[in-house]
Amino acid sequence: MIDNLRNEHIILGVDPGTLFMGYAVLKTCGQQVDILEFGAFDVHKLEGQYPRLQKEFFFLQELIDKHHPSCLAIETQFVDKNPQTMIKIVHAQGVAIAAALSKDVPIYEYSPMKIKMAITGNGHSTKMQVADLLQRFLHIPDEQMPKKLDATDALAIAYCHFLQLGLPVSTGGAKDWTTYAKRKGLTDKELTGPNAQLLAALATVKKKKK
């Protein structure tokens, strides 16, 4: 793990979607993490599922050619009450995987719960909580935060993979912000539950920075 941490990595994170596909490219070297680019690729104006999938496939190939990622990290095990939605998402996952395979890029899969656990320490965190922590971890200015959560979802996937390589310095050696806050005594002990403690920790840190 230490050797992996010291090496330079370009991580491509993808949040598969049929209307908007989240993507994020991180450059990591040791404990340093830089965002090369991230956003939500919009295909919703195209008519039909297959033209959208084709557009996503070509976009990912271009992204790979541009950044030469050392791996693709992708969200899997998506579950939805609507079977048709699940099928469409699976198709989008397949397109992303096929784009990576066409460029000989290794693939790593992470479940939604695994990603949330890695970022917040709570597998049932909301997308907004994940996005808020990522903004703090990676020091993203407010004006650069995307409106679409597909983008921050992809960023979370890429950052989750980084956490599998080693520990970020921004959390003092802890794997997530909640653990870091507990070590520093920033959580409110009177509050219970991961979400309550997480919000208390963030509020305390925000006050300390002022």
Question: Which term fits the overall shape?
Answer: globular
Number of strands: 5
CATH architecture of the largest domain: 2-Layer Sandwich
What summary fits the major beta sheet? Answer: 5 strands, mixed
Low-confidence stretches: 167-177, 184-210
Give the proportion of residues in helices: 40-55%
The topology string of helices and strands comes to: HEEEHEHEHHHHH
SS field, number of helical segments: 8
What is the element layout, followed by pairings?
Layout lengths: L1 H5 L1 E8 L4 E10 L2 E11 L6 H19 L3 E5 L7 H20 L4 E4 L1 H9 L6 H11 L11 H17 L11 H7 L10 H16 L1
Parallel strand pairs: 1-4, 4-5
Antiparallel strand pairs: 1-2, 2-3
Describe the structure.
- The protein has 210 residues and is of the alpha/beta class.
- It has two domains: 2-169, Ribonuclease H-like superfamily/Ribonuclease H (Nucleotidyltransferase, domain 5); 176-210, no CATH class.
- Helices cover 50% and strands 18% of the residues.
- It has helices at 2-6, 49-67, 83-102, 112-120, 127-137, 149-165, 177-183, 194-209, and strands at 8-15, 20-29, 32-42, 71-75, 107-110.
- The protein has a five-stranded mixed β-sheet, with helices on both faces.
- Helix 3 (83-102) links the parallel strand 4 and strand 5 (107-110).
- Helix 4 crosses helix 6 (149-165), helix 5 (127-137) crosses helix 6 (149-165) and helix 7 (177-183) packs across helix 8 (194-209).
- The protein starts with a helix and ends with a helix.
